[in-house]
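$ run holo --ligand "phosphoenolpyruvate" --emit tokens
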Amino acid sequence: MRKKIVAGNWKMNLTFEEGQKLTSEIVNMLKDENIKDVIAVLNPPFVHLYPVKKLIGDTPNLFLGSQNCSDKASGAYTGETSAAMLASFGATYVIIGHSERREYFKESNQLLTEKTKQALANGLTPIFCCGEPLEIREAETHEAYVKQQLTESLFDFSPEEMSKIVIAYEPIWAIGTGRTASSDQAQEMHAALRSHLASKFGKELADNISILYGGSANPGNAKDLFSKPDVDGGLIGGASLKSRDFVEIVKSF
Ligand code: PEP
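-- output --
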């Protein structure tokens, strides 16, 4: 059975106090809700990891993740943060290949393979992002485009490695725009990606991979998105900065 996951991506937002307040609120609400079959993940900026982890404590089903990691193990790479460091601070997830990193930091499919290797080598679950820009969607070549992202970054992994990776489909035109993909558009792409994974790694493995949707998901549309058979949760940007909204999305399964 694949996992249902709702992961919040804080991006470069929130001061120390704001991050503490948000985390405390989420921890308290989730304790009250007693969520059983959904995994919630907070992915704050690096500097928040340690204090956020302390607040999460042993909250059931709430985990710590990061928004990025280095493609290198250690050494003279000023400003970088390794997967080993993240693991040592209690992170268990790491977002890899978010479209903002692909665009603004020129992260290539090959670099993302190296980052994914580092994550796996350190016991982190990569949340591997993929998704097409608007012009590719309008040209109706989006399926081929996103499949190629997976092929180029992930298809040299062993089945055992692949089975540990979570995919997040995030159409770039839907991120932070308020323009969500419809649940049918999400389902169509998720099913296509699952069958692409099956063509390389087999149906059983593909059926067990969680594929999350990201792009202007909110408490008003999460239920509809999560009702689709191949949508296994969400990667949530803006709405993860509001405790009530984030917890409502976690409760939307
Ligand atoms: C994201 O940044 O991963 C994201 C999905 O953002 P938003 O929910 O704000 O569109």
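-- notes --
The beta strands are 4-9, 38-43, 62-66, 93-96, 125-130, 166-169, 211-214, 233-236.
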